Amino acid sequence: MQFCFFGLVRATFNDQPLQFRSNKVRALLAIIWLDPRRQWARDELASLLWEDYSSSKARTNLRVTFSQLQQSLHPLYQALPARAPLLVADRARIALQAEAWPELQVDVWRFDQAIAAYHTHNHEHGVICAACLEQLTSAVELYQGDLLTPFAIEASSGFDAWLERQREARHQQLLLAYDVLAEHALRMRDFHEVQRLSTAQLLHLPWHEQAHRRLMISFAELGHQSMLREQYLLCQRTLERELGIGPDAETQALYQRLVTTSTTLPLPNPTLKTLPELSKPLIGRTHELALLHSLIEQKQQRLVTLLGLGGIGKTSLALAYAHAAQAAFDAVWFVSFAGSAGESLASDHHRLSATIATTLGLSQQLHTPQAALLHYLGQRSVLLVLDNLEHLVHEALHVQAILDACPHVVVLVTSREPLNIQAEQRVQLHGLALANADQAFAASAQLFLAHGTNATSQTLADPASMEWIDRICRMLDGNPLAIELAARWVHYLGLDEIATAIEQDMDFLQTSVRDLPDRHRSMRAVFDGSWRLLSRHEQRVLSQASLFRGSWSLTAMRSICTVSRLTIRELIDKSWLTQHAGRAMIHRLIQRYAHEQLQRMPTTAATTAKRHSIYYLAMLRRHTPALSGSQPQASVRLLRDDLDNIRQAWLWAVDHGATHLVHASLAGLSQLYDLLGLYHEAIRVLQTSITQIQRQPTSLQQQRLLMRLTIALASHFNAAADYRTAAQVGQQALDLAQTLDVPQQIAACLLQIGIAQRNYGLFADAEQSLQRSIAIAQALPLKQVYAHALRSLGFLAYLQGNYPVALRYHEQALAFYRLLHDQRSINLAQNTLGLIALAQGDLQQAWDQLAVVLTRCQTLEDGWGEALTLNNLGAVVQAQGDPARAIDYYQKALSIRQRIGDRWGEGISLSNLAAAWHEQADYQTAYQSAMQAIQHTTAIHDLPTKAYALTTLSQILRVLGDQAGSIAARSEATTLRTQLGQDHLISQTID
After folding, report:
1. Signed CA dihedral, 390, 393, 396, 402: sign only
2. 149 and 255 share a domain?
3. What is the C-alpha separation between 1 and 11, in angstroms, rounded?
4. Any idea which UniProt keywords this protein has (predicted)?
5. DSSP 8-state code for residue 846
6. Which domain holds residue 476?
7. Does the predicted TM-score (pTM) go above 0.85?
């Protein structure tokens, strides 16, 4: 669905135009859409559109016009009946609810977002990044004319003034975008693009002298002297006609300078024919290319090294810069050192100088290569591109000698290793940009399409294909050569088959094309070449690093791999590893290659894997007490960063029968997953662990471990709102615990079974299970299980309306939680105490209780607890008679719950929103929320919340005149309330 406001107002849904009855409707649409986050007061809208009318007449007109606008949007509501309405309104306000319609596309929003992205992005070295160039280009393309042009409505000078402000704001941003894009094109010496952009800009602002000056420079650079003069005269006439003034001093001075010289920079030297031609366009390196221009031409850096593994695009970038910078030098020379590892052009000491001298055609009969080279370069302004210099980094001092003796020489090096001399400015190349929320059509995908389109006639840019292309590019970490090799297969295989082949076999990434050098015909050849440059010690350490997952601390690597900081630094400098925020990472392709090498060292592989598991599980155990303590957030943040490695360490211990490690780490792992809200990942890891341990020889220790794992699994099924499975798994654990006669685990099993039964609506069974758990836990004693069971039983009493009992159980549980310093559980207990106070009519106590809890949850970074508390605070303010404020709380809670996957809480928030919207008299929105709540609670079998949502739906349908639907919803709610034993709520259902 698209809404366009640049030029004529137009809107389409499923490619069909939406019809608007009048310009007043279009004006109302524009006002709301152009300020989408604002809640408009009805009086404000009425006075804006009908300022010459009486207040009552203006409000009446607004009500009619708003109704007509809703009718225009009816095709959207009809096609998506379960969706929240796009426009919401009450007696006082009207607002757009755009977040509920993510497919909504509005040209002005996209324009504003593109401009905002540019303004908020910090550009190093004053160089505009590729993402911002793309954003500004998009903004220029979106501007199809001034806002709402042509457009007019009667009796609306206020609207006219508002529209003029909106137009002027966008017009200024458009001119800014043109200025930035055109200045970038000028710096890149793309003079035809300068002309296109500046000419387009002058259509919007004919007297903009900066655009005229850019055109004059471009004509001069291209040798079009007559057009240069014509442009100056046009500028002069336009300024005189429009403003009554002449060109400013800067424009006049520029013109005088340009007409006296044929070009601002020397013409290319004829010897530049030695520079290899660019065989294909450079894709995705706009930022890096601009950075080279900045470093060399503005910051006067005379030695720049492009670093990165083979295939990352160092040579292509260097050639692109060399071609673009030809006019800035007397000569540009490209010297290739590919294959120099085995050559002997001269003595080893002079190989670098000899290769350069030979490429330049210098006689070396009377002088040493270095002397001949320095004599030739002398005072010349020369760019030397030294390609693939990694084989001769030990001769880096010869590069320094050139810089010292030849003051106008600039050296651009491509290498897999740095030269490590003081004059060197390093530019590290990484993979091409991958798709993200801000940049769907990323450089990596563009490169794949460029090569894939050459290999096949089929269309690859459809959404389904683009998803596969993005996945392939991610698997290859955006490596340009790897992407090119993969794209060449599209003629023979589907994109899904290519992805599978890459996943299974790195040797799939190869080609037999003749115009690629041997070292680039496969990724294995690339890695083999770089691998041979490593010392044996570096090879061993890199192989060991393949066992890490995600990112890891340098401290962990030093301990596990028994390696020095210096060696780690060398591997980072040589682009085998990357580093960010003090943590190391390894790209997936490199990891696979390095892991292959590790398999050839079985003793090292086994030792390193064991050390990895011991290290990370020990880290987890050290932080386990803090995870259940009063301030777990610091430990959670630290362990979250290492979660990939903790998971890897855990699974290794499971696979290798290290049951002592698994036993010792289970509590911490389960608690960490719970605090992070990663219930489904916890379920996958625990199920995998149980399956693996069941295959191991039966022993008492194995059975005890299976019992504990199964209890933890039941707990996470409960957290994931899969109550039926939680009860089944809990029963399996209970059977095992009873067989092994382990009372403390029996109590834990009964606790999880009771929670599942309560949430599944089996209140009587739940009470029995929880009472049994309490009896065992109290006798042993098991303080934490006892406290959890008390709280769970108390919440059951709350659901049944037995508030004195609920209060007693929660106060008892709270006392134990305080003894245990379990802040998270304290917050949960106090949340329910707040609800009990609310149910008993003590709104102030409820508010005071919950407000304190909210602050603590936010401090602890406990998203689950924060959402729970926000939701309950919403219930308090709704009971205070402020449904609008309650909606704000409910929506914040819902947003968090959807983000962290709290399915149980999501159903409650949706139900509360339905009730609040109903109280606000926004029955359409209330209906949508109620239907969503019912669908959601049905899916997870949350019967208490479903009954609540059905009760609200019945009330909404009655107001909307659907008496039959209201009766049916009320009947179903009453049946559920009776089944659950919620007799105290049946009266609400019947009301």
Report:
1. negative
2. yes
3. 7
4. TPR repeat
5. H
6. 443-525
7. no
201 belongs to a structural domain: yes
Q: Distance (Å, rounded) from C-alpha 329 to C-alpha 384?
A: 10
| Same-domain check for residues 398 and 371 | yes
Provide the residue type at 15 as one letter.
Answer: D
Cα separation, 961 vs 264, whole angstroms: 79
| CA distance linking residue 69 with residue 61, whole number of Å | 12
Residue 153 tokens read as 């409505």
Cα gap 610→595, rounded to integer Å: 15
Domain end position, chosen among 401, 428, 455: 428
Burial of 229 (0-12, 13-18, 19+ CB in 10 A): middle
Place of tokens 């695009």: 313
Mean pLDDT per 10-residue interval, the chain, length 991 residues: 88 88 90 90 90 87 87 80 77 84 89 89 65 88 86 75 91 93 82 90 91 91 85 93 91 87 39 65 87 87 93 92 83 82 48 85 69 82 91 88 91 94 93 72 84 61 82 90 88 87 82 59 84 92 96 96 93 90 90 94 96 97 92 92 96 95 96 92 97 92 96 95 94 97 96 94 94 96 95 95 95 95 93 95 93 92 93 93 91 92 92 92 89 92 91 91 91 89 66 47
696/699 Cα distance (integer angstroms): 9
Question: Are residues 367 and 419 part of one domain?
Answer: yes
Q: Which residue has the tokens 């090879």?
A: 539
In SS3 terms, 549-591 reads as CCEEEHHHHHHHHCCCHHHHHHHHHCCCCEEECCEEECCHHHH
Residue in the structure block whose two tokens are 């592989």: 605
Place of tokens 């660019």: 278
Beta bridge pairs of residue 383: 332, 410
Q: What kind and span of H or E run contains 251?
A: helix 249-260
Q: Coil, strand, or helix at residue 219?
A: helix
CATH number at residue 580: 1.10.10.10
Is residue 825 assigned to a domain? no
